[in-house]
Fold this protein.
Amino acid sequence: MRIGILALQGAFAEHAAMLQRIGAECFEIRKVADLDGQEMDGLVVPGGESTVMTKLLHGLKLFEPLRREITGGLPVLGTCAGLILLAGRVEGGRPCFACMDITAKRNAYGRQLGSFETEAPFAGLGTVPMVFVRGPYIESAGKNVRVLARVDGHIVAARQGNMLVTAFHPELSRDERIHRYFLKMAEGYGREKSAVETHCG
Ligand code: GLN
């Protein structure tokens, strides 16, 4: 599995470390040339500052090629700011990739409670630790979105097709289950791709 990690800003190194630990190969995406000739089975859009990342994505001309990959079905894991970048609607802000039928609320927990750790049930995985760092939550989700976890009644993890998002930072805990779940999505995508290639060849 080869996973591209958007590495413009924020918590990307921790994603790479965790994915490598569970057997994936990773490469960092900082400019368009980093995508040249790369096999990519999945993409991580990490936490950071969503407004800064949006500006950088456009300024560096990464927005279009990455959006094309995501809408084409490439598995993507968006964490925290990454969730905001994938959201179709952002309360009080502008959407970026706008691929997912969710409304994200930025800095949803206020200043005092901005950063905290908790644990909560995650569909199919059991109880997982959740590290929040000035995170968003999902205010509403369309009918094609599967809600995977809630904290205090608010949606904090969801999936739509090959897009998986968490409002928290799974890469900042020691629990690898969410990254393993994402790698399974990437594996499935690789299998589909090679089936099409075989069929067409
Ligand atoms: N508060 C940040 C934003 O709105 C997200 C924080 C994070 O990714 N840890 O973009």
